[in-house]
Structure formats: C-alpha cells, structure tokens
C-alpha cells in the first residue's frame, strides 16, 4: 500500500474502540504499554508535580478517545474541556464518563498510578476525580481557524494534545499551521503539552492505514522556539514495541510555556 492510499484523519473517521483496544488496552497482545501508557504518564506526573502547570481550565485535544493522560492532570485543574474531531470519539468518551454498559475498561491504569503516586487509596478515587473534572466534551472543526466556531472558548491555562497534530497535518507546514490554532486556545502565559511519534508515517486502526505527519526532534524544537515557547520538559522514549501496526521510532514528550 503506497502513501497515496492512506486515509487522512479527520476526513476519514477511525474506529475509536479499535484504536483503544489496539494501543491502550490491557489485552495480552497489546505490545505498546511501555510506549503509549507508562512513558507518557511518567512524564506528565513529573511535569505536574513541580506545581507550575495548574489553573482553572485545561483543554485536551487528542487523537482518539483515550483519557489515561488526564488522570494526573485532573488534580491540578478545576475543569477539563475535551475537544474531539468525530462524534464517534465523543460517544466513546461519554460512555466512560457516564459509566455506561460497554465503556472501555481503564482499570489497568490504576496500577500505573499506584506505582507513580504510591498511595493506593488515593488512586481508587482517580476515576471519579477525572470524570468530575471533565465538564464538557465537544466537537471541533480542524478546518476552522477557531476550532470550536462559532463558540469561543475561554482561554486555557494549559492545552494538552496527544498525536492530534500528527494525524491532522498533511505535512510539516500543515503541522505548524495547526499548532498555531492550538496555541490560540491558550492564555498568553499558558502551558502547551504535546506528545507524538517521531518519524512516523502511518498508524493502523483495524484495516485502515491512517496518514501520520513525519517529523524529527530538530523540527519540533525549532517550531517551538520560533513560536516563542520556552521548553520546560523534553523527553524522548525510544520504541520498545515490536509491531508493524505503526512505524514510529520514538515517543516525544514536550511541556513548554510562553513568557508574559
């Protein structure tokens, strides 16, 4: 299959449950746990524990319906607003928030949380804390300059995004254009947290091969510097999984802010 046959998100929707089961579940054949679950959660825990990244509003705009990256964040923000490109992702997420039959099982995340925070009693409350913190899930339109047009959101203290820029950007120029839309959601002094795959060109979701924008560390560092950000946390986790479902070399974590 050549690149011309790849599907482009969000023009082509993906099966959100298949995406969760393949890359974030506790299934015995799920080989991505070190890369997609443990590494991001460890980075987020370190970043938030310093106490600088906090406030009233966090906006999450991530590819798919996963929420494990928000468990630690929920203790530092009064409200979390989640933006999704597809109704299917919103339905999947709301099924979990409202504890409905068939909701995706995130109980394995508590094992990671207990290792990070060391208090099993507090970890048991994380589900409810996060569900309470997520005050709204809403559809966004990547093609608009204002992603939630016609609604204008209040500026956020932090925007967090996992692999959304990778999937919605056709090339590196598109990546920069889309990143600037994310930045517009922030307060002037707000924090931007991004996670993505280095040198990725595709991700498989079921039978669908989804296009991913390819970039390396130098590109991302240059973009953040050019946009006026100071990088507070930068971590690269070399790939540990063995699978042809996705072709990333490493996972990149960035937390950065703009000076007032």
Summarize the structure.
The chain is α/β, with parallel strands linked by helices.
Could you characterize what this model shows?
It is a single chain. By secondary structure, the chain is of the alpha/beta class. It is built from nine helices and nine strands. Strand 6 (202-205) and strand 7 (208-211) form a beta hairpin. Helix 2 (33-49) packs parallel to helix 4. The radius of gyration is 17 Å and the shape is globular.
Tally of helical segments? 9
| Arithmetic mean pLDDT | 93
- H/E order of the elements? HHEEHHHHEEHHEEEHEE
Low-confidence stretches: none
Gyration radius (Cα, Å) is: 17 Å
In percent, how much strand structure appears in the residues?
25-35%
Structure class: alpha/beta
The count of β-strands is 9
Fold topology:
Layout: H1 16-23, H2 33-49, E1 55-61, E2 77-84, H3 87-97, H4 109-117, H5 120-124, H6 126-133, E3 134-139, E4 156-162, H7 164-168, H8 172-183, E5 186-198, E6 202-205, E7 208-211, H9 217-226, E8 229-238, E9 250-258
Parallel strand pairs: 1-2, 1-4, 2-3, 4-5
Antiparallel strand pairs: 5-9, 6-7, 8-9
Task: Give short descriptive properties of this protein.
two-stranded antiparallel ribbon; single chain; alpha/beta; globular; 260 residues
């Amino acid at each position: 299959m050549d690149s011309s046959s790849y599907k482009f998100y969000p023009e082509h929707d993906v099966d959100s449950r298949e995406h969760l089961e393949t890359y974030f579940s506790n299934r015995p054949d799920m080989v991505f746990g070190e890369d997609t679950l443990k590494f991001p959660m460890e980075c987020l825990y370190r970043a938030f524990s310093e106490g600088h990244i906090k406030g009233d509003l966090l906006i999450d705009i991530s590819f798919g319906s996963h929420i494990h990256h928000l468990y630690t964040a929920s203790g530092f923000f009064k409200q979390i607003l989640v933006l999704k490109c597809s109704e299917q992702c919103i339905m999947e997420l709301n099924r979990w928030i409202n504890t409905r039959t068939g909701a995706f099982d995130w109980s394995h995340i508590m094992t990671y949380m207990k290792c990070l925070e060391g208090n099993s009693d507090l970890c048991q409350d994380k589900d409810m804390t996060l569900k309470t913190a997520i005050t709204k899930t809403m559809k966004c339109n990547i093609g608009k300059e204002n992603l939630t047009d016609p609604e204008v959101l209040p500026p956020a203290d932090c925007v967090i995004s996992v692999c959304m820029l990778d999937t919605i950007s056709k090339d590196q120029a598109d990546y920069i254009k889309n990143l600037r839309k994310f930045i517009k959601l922030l307060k002037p002094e707000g924090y931007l947290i991004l996670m993505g795959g280095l040198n990725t060109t595709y991700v498989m979701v079921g039978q669908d091969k989804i296009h991913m924008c390819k970039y390396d560390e130098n590109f991302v560092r240059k973009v953040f510097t050019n946009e006026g950000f100071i990088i507070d946390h930068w971590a690269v986790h070399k790939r540990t999984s063995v699978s042809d479902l996705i072709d990333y070399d490493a996972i990149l974590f960035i937390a950065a802010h703009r000076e007032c």
